Batch of 2 targets.
Target 1
Amino acid sequence: MRSSAPRAASLLAALLAGCAHAPAPAAPVQAGWPPGPMPRARWVRSLPAARSPEPSFWRRAAEVVLGTEGSRIEGPGLRRPVGVAAVPGGLAVADPDAPGVFRISEAGALSAVLCAGREWASPLAVAASGATLFVADAAIPAVIRVDPAGTCLAFGEQALARPVGLAAAGGRVYVVDGPVHAVVVFNADGRELFRFGERGESGAGLNFPVAAAAAPDGAILVVDALNFRVARFGPDGTYRSALGGTPDGAQGLPRPKGVAVAEDGRVLVSDAERDAVLVFHPDGVLDFVLGGSGNGPADLAMPAGLALAGSALYAADAMNGRIQVFELLGDAK
Amino acid sequence: MTSTLLPLAILLAAPAAGTPPEAVPAPPREVTAMPAPPRALRRDPRPADVSATRHNLSVTGTGRVRAASETRVCFFCHGSHLGTGTSNRPEPLTVLQGYRSTTMKGRSAAPSNGTRMCLSCHDGTVAVGNTLRGRVTMRQEARAQRGAALDLRRSHPVGVRPVESLNLRRPGKEEAVRLDPRGSVECTSCHDPHRESLDEEHKFLVAGNRESAICLSCHQLPGWGTGPSSHKSSPRPYTDAAGKTRLVIDAACSACHLSHGAAERGPLLRPVPGTSDDDLCLSCHDGRVGKNIAAEVNKPSAHAAARSSALHDHGEGQPGASRRLPEGSAATPRHVTCVDCHEPHAASAQAQRAPFAMGALAGAWGIDRSGQRVASVRYEYEVCFKCHADSANKPQGRQVGQGDPVRRRPDYNLRNVFDLSSPSFHPVAGPGKGADVPSLVKPLDVGSVIYCSDCHSSEATGGPRGPHGSVYPKLLAAQLSTLDGTPESASAYALCYRCHSREVLLSNGSAFNRHQSHVTGIQADRRALPGAPCTACHNPHGVSRLFGNATNNAHLIDFDTGIVKPNAAGLLEYQAAGPRTGSCALSCHGVEHTHAQSGYSAVPPSALRSLQMRGLQQAPLRGPATPAPPRGKK
C-alpha cells in the first residue's frame, strides 16, 4: 500500500529541512502511485505556498537581544481544511477550525472569503458553480451562497439540521444533511426542491452521509460514511448503485470522507482512517490507492474533501493543515 | 555612612538579602509544599457494555442515532481491524497539529490508533462533540464552541508522553485514568468509548468527574491540593458557558478550563467574549461571583488598565523560558494581567499582616530582595518586584507626567529603594530607618512593616482591596497632591495623613518642628507663601541605596527639583545632624536657606535623654559640629 519512494523522499526532505536556519530547498519529491514503473498518479505540491515564513536567524537573534521573542503572532493560515472545490483561478477551501473560507490562487496565495455582517462558524464543505461559491456551515446551520461580487445569501436555516457536504450541478445545490441521513436539494436561489435518503444500510438508505459530488453525467455520489460506501443517485434522487461497502480489505472504506468524479468516470474517495485516496473504476472496482500516513511532503493525515480540475486532484489534508495537489496521469480512457 | 563604605555595606548585606527581615516572624503557612497524592480514582471493575451506549450504532443501540437493521455492534469502529485493512499501520502518524504550551514538558508521541479512531468520526462530519449543543444555546456560545470536536489546539493534548514534575504525576496502572501502554496520553486516558455513564454528564469518561477528580489524577497544582484555595473550595454559584448554574467547588477545573473547545491561546481556558487576557477572570470577578475587580481595572489608574492582550505567557520568568521577566529590554511591551500577580489555583481570601503575602497572592512567583526568583512569594513586595524592580522597560523616567515630582537621581528599580541598606525608605521590605516618628498613627510604630498596597490600592472603601485600580494617579489609595502651592487640607494629603497624624505634623510635634510653615505656607511672621506638598521634600518610596546617603537623605528627604532650587551658594541639600536636628541649604519660594541659618532642633532635652536611654542614639547621625561635605552638583 505504501511506496518506498515517497518515504525515502520525505526522509531526504526531513534531512534537508534539518539544516540550521537555511530555507529548506525544494527537495525533488518523486512520489507516484501505484508504486512501480508505471505510476498513474503523482504528488505535485502542497498548498498554500509557504505560510508566513520562518523568521530569519538575524530576526530571531534580534528578538532575543530585545527580549521580544515569543511575542510574534502567527499569521493566518489553514488549520484543518475539510472542504475543497476548484474555482476559476484556483481553489476554495472550507476550514472549520480557522474558522473560515479561503481562496488559494494558482500561485498558492491564501486569501479569506468574507461575508459582510456574517462570521463563519463551522464551514465544512464548499462547492462551486462557475464563479459562485456555496459553503455549508454546519453550526449555523445554513448554506451560504457567495456571489462573484462578494454578496452573500444564506439559505436552508430551517430545512437543515447540520449541513456537512455539498455538490453543485445543473443549477442545483445538493446538501448532505448528516444527522438526518438525507440529501436536501435546493435551486441556486435557495429554494428547496426536494430531498432524498433516509436512515438505512443499503440501497437508498444512508448512515451518516458526509459528502457529495456530481458526476459529469449528472449523477450524484454520496459518501455514506457509516455504511462504508459511496452511493450513486440520479439527479432526481433515485438510487442507482454503490461502491465500497466494507470497512476492511483492500477496497475497504473504514472512514470515507470525500469524493470526486473524474471526466473518465473514475471515482476518487478519500479515507481518514487509511490516510489515502482510493481510485475506483466507474464500475466500482478498485484501481489503485494513493497517499499514505504522515506529514511528509506527499503524505496525508486524515484527508477529507476532494476536488478535481482536469488532471489535477486536490485533497484537503485536514490534520496536516494543507491542500495536497496530485496529478492523475492520463492513461485510462 | 560615607559613600566609600557603601559598596562594603552592599557586600555585607548581600548574603542576608532574600531572607526574612529579622524583626518579623517566620511565615505561618507554606504554599509551596508538594500536595499529597490524591485518592486515586479506581478503575470500574464491571465489564464494559458498549451496546448500552450511544456508541452502539447498530439497530440495538439505545441512542437517537442507530442503524435500521445492522446488528453488529463493534463493526462501526473495529471493522477495519478484522481484515487486512489498516490495523497493521506500519508507521503511525507522528505529528498531529495539537495543543502547544510554553509550560508543557511532555514529549510528542505518535497518537495511538485508538485516538485516531476517535478523531476519524469526531471531526464535525459524523460526530460533533459539543458543537451541536452550541446550536441550541446562545449564538455567542456557538462561536465559542466552534470546531470544538477536533481542533486539537483547543483540546487537551493527545499523543503526548507526560513528564512527571511538581505539578504532574503519572497515574498508576490500577487507576481509572491511565496512559497508553507506550506511556502517552490519549483520548482513551480519560474516555472509555465503551462506557457512557460512569460520569454524571454521560461523556464516556472513565470515572465520575465531580470536583475534577479525573483532571486531578494527573494534575497536581501546588495550593490546590493543600492550601485554602478559594477556587477549589468556594460554594458560590456561577453560571457556566452553557447557561447552567453550578457551584465553583463542584465545577473545579472546569470553571475556568475546558478539555475540549478551549480558547486557542493559553492553558485550555474557557473562551469568553473579549480580547483581553483578563476577560476570563473578570467574567466572574465583576461583582456577580467574585468581588467587582472589573470596575477597578477600568479606573483611570489601574493595573490592566491597558487591557493586555496576548502579552502574558504562562512560562515567562521561568528558568530557560523564552520570555524573560523581569524584562531585559526596553523594547519589550509591558503587560499586566490578573495571573501576573495571582496564582488562581492557590489564591484565597486569607488575611495576613505585612509584609507577608496575603492569600490572594498565594502561590504566585516573585522576585525577592536580592533579585532572585522565588517560586512562591513569601512577601507581598516580591510580587511587585517582578515588574517594578529590575525590568528594563519601566516607563518611568521616559514619561514624567505633569506635576510629577522631579528627583535629582531617581531610581525606578524599587528593589534598590526598599533595600534595607538604603538611607531611608518606607518600611516595605523590613522596618524603616527612622527611630523617632512621633506622627505615626497607632497601631503603627517605628518597628512596623507595611505593604505596597497600603498606599497603592483601590480608593473605594468596602470594595476589593489591592492595587487593581484607583481614581487617583499612581494607583494611590487616597489623594496625594504633588502640586506646588496646594492649599493644605485633610484631603490634599489624605494618603500621608492615613498613617502620619495631621495634628501632630501641623502642631510641629514631629521630629521636624517646622512642618506647619512648610506645608501650609503660613510663616511665623504671618506671611503667606505657597504651601509645599509633602513630596517637595520627601520621596515617598525612599532613596536608592545606590544614589543616596544617610546624611543627606535621611527621613525620605529627596527634594522635588521642580519646586526646590539651589541657593545662592549653589547648594541644594539637607543635612541630618542628630536626633530631631538638621539643616537645609536650598532656595524655595524665594526663601534662601543656608545651613547656618536653617538649622532646627526639635529635641527637648528630656526627650533626648529618653531616646538615649532606649538606645536609639545609634541612629545613623553625625554631630552637628561636623556637617558632611556638600555633594557635588549632579
Target 2
Amino acid sequence: MKQIKKYILLLAMLCCVTSCLDKYPEDAVLEHEAITSVDAADQAVIGIYSAFLSPALYSGYLTLLPDIQSDFVYAVNGYSNVYGNVWRWDILATNSEIESVYGALYDVIGRCNFLLDNAATLKTKLTDDNEIDRLDQYCGEAYFARALAYSELVKMFCKSYESDEEAKEELGVVLTTRYYEKPLIKRASLYDSYQLIIDDLERAGELLALSEDYDPSLDGALYNSTYFSEYTVYALRARVALYMKDYDSAIEYSSKVIDSDYFTLSSAVAEYSGGVSYYQYMWSSDNSTEVIWKVGFTSTNYGGALGTVFFNYDYSSFKPDYVPAKWVLDLYSSYDMRYSTFFQEYTTGYTHGLSWPLLIKYWGNTDLYSAAQLLNTSMPKVFRLSEQYLIRAEAYCNIASPNYSKASKDISKLRTARIYNYGGSTAMTADNAMDIIEEERVKELYMEGFRLTDLKRWHKGFERTPQSQSLSNGSSLKVEADAPLFVWPIPQHELESPGADIEPNESNK
Amino acid sequence: MKKKVFLLFVFLCVALQTICAQNFTVRGTVISGEDNEPLLGLGILQEGTHNGTSTDIDGNYFIEIRNTDEATLVFSYMGFVTQRFKVNAATKKLDVVMNPEAVEVDEVVVVAYGVRKKGTIAGSVSTVKAEKIESVPTVGFDQALQGLTSGMTVISNSGEPSKPAVFQIRGMNSINSGTSPLFILDGVPITSSDFNAINPGDIESINVLKDASSTSIYGARAANGVVVITTKRGTSTDKVDITFRTQQGYSELAHGTWNLMNTEERIRFEQEVGFDKGQDYDLLRKTDVNWLDVVFNDRARLQSYDLSVNYASDKINYFVSGGYFDQEGIAQGSTFERYNMRANVDVRAADWLKVGTNSMITYEEVQQADDGEYSLSTPISACRFMLPYWNPYREDGSIASSSDGSWTGTTHNPLEWMSNNPVVNKKYKALTVLYAEITPLENLTLSSRFGVDYTHSTADMKSYPSFVGNGGIGVAGRSSYNAVNLTITNTANYLWKINPSHSLNIMLGQEGVDYRSEGFQLITRGQKNDAFTSISAGTIPTAWSNSHSSHSFLSFFSRGEYNYKELYYADFSLRTDASSRFGKDGRWATFWSMGFMWNVRKESFMKNTAKWLTNAQVAVSLGTSGNSSIPDYDHLALVGSGANYMGSAGIVPISEGNENLGWEQLLSGNLAIHLGFFNRVNLDVELYKKITTNMLMLVPQSYVNNGFGTRWDNVGEMENSGVELALNADVIRTKDFVWSVNANVSYNKNEITELYNGLNEYEISNTSTKLVVGHSVGEFYLNRYAGVNPANGDALWYTKDGEITNVYSEADKVMIGKDYIAPWQGGFGTSLAWKGFTLSAHFSWVADRWMFNNDRFFEESNGLYTAYNQSKRLLYDRWKQPGDVTDIPRYGVTPQMDSRFLEDASFLRLKNVMLSYSLPEQLLKRTKFVSRAKVYVQAQNLYTWTKFTGLDPESSSNVYKAQYPMSRQFTCGLEITF
C-alpha cells in the first residue's frame, strides 16, 4: 500500500512538472507589453522605417514595375521572364508581385497604427516634457509614414484625381487608422482617401516642425537624410497636390522645400572628385545634397537590388532582362550629362550578342559592394529636389492663370545642373510647356517609378515598336489612354477575404 | 525460542524431501510430424523450474530431474504446437512428434499503451512485420510501406535518400493544419524527420491505427491516425543469437521520361524561330550532351552493414545492435551516411518489478541536392534548361569552368556551381525510453515510462572564393539546432476476471509532453582563400538569426475493455488533453470512443461451418480525436525584434494572435468485417466516415488587418468517407511449396462541407486549386485549354460556359473535377517459396491522381524561355502552317497556366522484387556455429507504369516542379545468424 501511495505522490508531482502549459517565445513579447516607454516607441519607429526596406516597395516592385509596365524598357530575347507579365500587360488580379506591394503598404500602415495607438496610451502616463516632445516627434514620423503608404496605394490602385467632386464618386482605398480595432474592409472614396493623406501630413508637419532656432550647421544638415523631417512632409505634400491637380498647393509646398535652401541640386557638370560629377556620385554612392529622403541601407541591413534586372551580372557577363527604350536614349541631348550617368554601352552575354546602353544608374552603391559585395544595390531616393522643381514647373503651367516664365525658370534651374553649358533659359509657351515638362520628367526620373502614374494622370497612352533583339511578344504593344490597367487590379486575395466588401477595379476583369 | 522451532521445521522439511523425492532422467528423440525429420535445438523445460535442455542435431535430448517424483516437460519450438508431458522415474524414454502450428498463431497487434492478441480488438489496426522492413534498400523504413496496408498512403516527394515519405491515413482531414499521422516509437512521439535515424533492421513491427477506437486514446494529435513503431527485443531463448546483415548495391533513375531536344533538334529549332544570330553551328554540332545523364548517376552506390545480438531469459532479455548505412543519391551532391546503435533491455528485477530501456543513438552526415525550385545553378533544376551543345566537361574530363571559357553556356556550369558551394548537414540523435512496471497486486500493473528525444543538427555551408560566380569572395555559413522532447507516461492497468465468462480490463493514465528547441545561424563573407573558408575567415557577417520554440501537452485518459466469453468485445475510452498552442479558453478538449466486436465465428450456432469458415468478426467503432498541428505561438499577439534600420534595433508586431483558437475535432465511425476461409484466405472489409469540425485553418484575411494577410482560426468542416479491402491467401501450402498472394484497395472521398464566414469558395493563389464547398480539398481550378486554332495557330480556351475563345481570362476558370489527392490507392503482391527459395514481388499503385506539370510550362514555353532547352514537342508538334492540327500554338503564343499542363499522375509501380535463398539447416549444422544463413537479390522500384510525362509520377503535391525523381535500387544481401 505504501508503494501505491508513493507512486500516486510521484504521479501527482510529475503532473505538476509537466503542467506548464503557458509557453512564450524567448524573442518576442506580448503586444500590450511592448510599448511601455518612449525608448520602446523609438524602437517601434525604427520598425516602421525598416518596413520600407521591403523589396516589394521602393527597392523593388513599387519602383520598377510601373516603369517596366510603361514604355521605358524592352525585354530582351533570352530574358528570364522576370516581371514578364507586367511588361506584356498580361496582369492578372492574382499577380503575386502586385499583391505583395499591396500587402507591404498595409504592413507599413499597420506598424504606424500600432505606434500611434500605443503612443496615445503612453502619453497619458508621461510627465516629463522632454519625453513628451520625443514621443510627439515619433508620432510625427508615424503620421508621415502612413501618409506616404496611403499615397502609394492611391497612386497604384486608384484612378487619377480629377477634381474634388469627381473624387467623391471615385473609389479610393480601404482606410484604417487604428491598430486594435477591426477595420471596415470597404473602399473609401478617392476624395476621403486623399483627405486622410492630407490630414496625416498636417499632423506630421506640426509634430516634425523644426525648432525656430534650427541651424543646419549646428544641428546637422537636412539633406541626404534617411529619416523623415518637416521637409519630407512638404515634399510629399507637393507631390500629392500635383496628383490631386491642386496646383496652388503644389506650388506652395514645393516652394517651401526649394526656398528653404536646405537642399541643392547636385551638379552633373561640376566635378566631385576624380572625374566624377556630383550627380554621378549621387548614383554611385547614394550621397547627395538634393536627396530629401532616401531609404537607408547599410552593408548588413538593406533592401532589394534595383539594378539586377538591368544587368544580371554573374561576374563574367551581362544578361539584362530589360534594356532602355531607344526613344528614351534619343531624348537626351549630346550635352546632357545625365546620359552618361545613366547609360553605358555593353555587349551582352546572350548568344545574339546584343550591344546596348545598359542602365548604370542602378549599377549600385560602390561602398555597399566593397563592404558586402552587394551587387546592383542602391538606396532608393524617394524624394529628390529635382522632382520638386518639376512639380512646381508643372503646377505653374496648370494653375488658373499659367505662369510659363516661372515654369521655365524651374526647368532651366534643373537643366543647368544637368546639361553642360546650358544656356540658362528655356522657352516655354502654352503649346510646348507640357511637352517640355513630360520630356524632362522622363529624362530626370527615368526608372524611378513615376512614368505609369504620369501617363495615367495626363490621360496619355503609348505605343511600343520593336527594337534590336527585343522580345517580339510585347514589343508592338499599343496602349490607349486611360486603359484599365493603368490602375492596378485589387489583389484577388483582398476581394475574396472573409468580411471584405471591396469593389474591384476595371482591371480586375 | 521461536527461532529454534523454525529452524527445526526447516531441517525437517529438507530431510523429508531428501527421503521422499528422488532424481531420475528422461531421454528421447523429437521429430517433426510434417516430415519426420529430427528437430535441432528444440527447447525442453521442466515446468515451473529453470531446468531445461535442448535437442541435438539428431533430435536427441537428455534431461535429469531432481528431487521430485513427477514433473511436466514442456516441448516448445518455433512454428510448432507446444506440448506438455507428465514424466516420472518410470518414463525413462519419451519420443515426441511435434506438430506444426496452424498458420493462425497468436499474433499480437499493438494498441495504444499495450498489445493485444490479434482478433480480440474492436479497432482497426494493420500490422506490418519485420520481414517486410528489415531488408529494404533505403535509408528509412517508410519506403517499404507503400501499398502494403489498406488506408495508408505513403508517397515520396523526393528521391533524396535522406528525405522521408509523406504519410496519410484515410484521406486528408484538414486544410492547413497538419495531416501527418502521429508516429510513436516505443511509446514516444517522433516526427517523420526522424525516420532516417532509425535503422529499419531494428524494427519489429509497424502498426497502423486507423479508427477512433484504436486512436482516440491517443487523443491529442491522433486525428490523422497513428503509426506505432516497435523495435526488436530479445527473443532467442536457447542461446545468444548473433545476426549479421549486409547489403550491397546501386541506384539509378527509376523512371526518367526525358523529352528535351538534342543538339541537332535544337539547331533546327533555333533556325526555325530565328534564334540563330551569331551562332557557329558547325562548331556547336560537335557537342551533344544529354543533361539527364550528366546530372543523374546510374551507378550510385549503396551499402549497409548491421550486427545485432539478442537473448532472452526469464530474468533479462536484450537486443543490442549496431549498423552502418551509406547511400549515394542519384543526383549530384546528394549523399547519406549513418552510424547507429541500439540497446533494448528488459530486466525482471523482482517478481513485482520489471524495468527496461529502449535506447538508440545515431549520427548522420547528409548532403542534399537542391530541388523543387527553378534555378540555373542547381543541377536538378538546371539540367532541363541547359542546352545540349553546352558541354559540362572539358576534353580531359574535368569540370568545365566559366573562369577559363571552357564553359560556353549561360551563367555557370551547374556542376561547377555545385562543387563550389557545398553544404554538409550533420545530425546527432539520441532517443532513450526508460520504463518501470510494477505489479503490486495480482492483475494490477502500474507502469511509468519516461522518454528523452534529443536532436542536435548542424549545417556547414561554403562558397569558394575561387569560383568565378562568387566574384572572388567566399561565403561561409554555420547553423546549429537543438531540440529536446520529454515524454512521461504513467498508466495503471487492472485486469479483472470476474468469472471465466466475463473479463474486464481497466486502464487509467496520464501523459505529459514537453518540447523545446533552439537554434541559430550565422553567415559571413569576405573569405579570400579556398583553404580558409570558415566563418571566422570572413570579414563581414551578412546574415544572423536565431530561433526558439516550445510546446507542451498534458493529458489524462482512461480505457475500459470488456469481453464476454471471447465472443463479445467492447471498449470505451475517454481522454482529455491540453495544448500550449491554444489560449486558455480553448486549451482543453475531451475525446472519447467506443468500439464493439462480435466474434461471430465462436458462436455455437456457427459450429457446423468450422470446416470452411475459420474466422468471422464484425466490429464497429465511433469516437473523436484531435489535431493541434499549428505553429507554437500563433495564438499570441506578439511583438518581435529584428526590424532594424540604419544600425538601430527596431521592434515590430509579428503576429495578431487569436486567443479563441482551440482544438480541431474529428469524429470518425468505422465498420469492419473480418473473414477467414479454410484457414488460408483472409478477407477484411472496412467502411468509414470521418467528419472534421472546428477545422484549424490559416484563413486568408485582408492585408488591411495591419498587414497580416492570414490568421489561424477554427473554421469549416470536412468529410472523408471510404472503403478498404484487404485480401491475403495461401493459394498453395505444402511442406515444400507455398504460394501466397495479397492485395489491398482503398478508396477515399473527400468533401469540404463548410468554409468560413459563410464563404463558399476560396482560390488559393498560385496553386491552381480552389477550396469550394461540395468539392474535394485538392480539386484543380483552371482555365480549360481547348487546343489550337488550325487556321492561325492561336491558343484556344473554353469560357466558363463552354464556348471557345482565344482570350485567356481569369473569369473562365472552372473547377475541373480532377484532384491532386488520389482517391484510389493500393498494392498487391505475391510470394512463392520452394524449399529454401523465396521469390516475392510487391506492387503499389495510386489511381485518379492529377498533377500540374510546371516543368512543361518551361519546356513548352513557346517563346518565353527560348534561350534554354525546350521540349522536342515544340520542334515537331507546334503549329506551323494553316491546317496543322496540334495542341501547341504557333511560336510566340506563350503558354498560360491552364489545363494543358494538368497530367494524369496515377501510377503502378513494381515496388520490390526479391529472390532469396535460405541455406538448408542440415548443411549449416555441420559448421557448428552458423545456425541460419540467407542470401538474396532484390530490386526496388523496378518498373513504373504511368501516363505522366515528368521524370517521376510519385508526389503528393499539386504541382510538379524540378522534383528530385525517385530512384531504382538493385542490391544483393546476406544475412547470417550465429
